[in-house]
Structures are given as structure tokens and as C-alpha cells.
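S.,

Sequence below, as promised.
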Amino acid sequence: MEVLLTLKEISEWLKISPQTLYKMLERGELPAIKINNKWRFEKKKIQEWLHTQRLPKQDNQL
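The prediction came back faster than expected:
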């Protein structure tokens, strides 16, 4: 079974305020599910999402 994290846990992990996370959820920017009207996040999907958010390395970067 996949590890589910709460909004508070995601907020602390990503260093993003809960208010900003709610806005991101409203815009559909984060992979999440609602269980009993509360947002839950699969750790693996958040890690995958983080990987896709990285900026591509420029040719002139070290």
C-alpha cells in the first residue's frame, strides 16, 4: 500500500505554505486525492512530480 501524506506533511516537506498548496490544488497542479473531504498525497507521485518540476540543465551550466 502506498504511503499517503497529509497537506500539513506536504507543506512541511516542500516548504510551501498550506494556502499556496490549496491554490495549486485548485489549479490541478499537484497529484492528490480527496478522502473524506481531506486532501491526501501519495509520496511516490509527489516525488515523481518534483522530478518533472526541475528546470532542464542549460548547456553552459556546470
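The chain has one domain: 4-53.

Coffee later?
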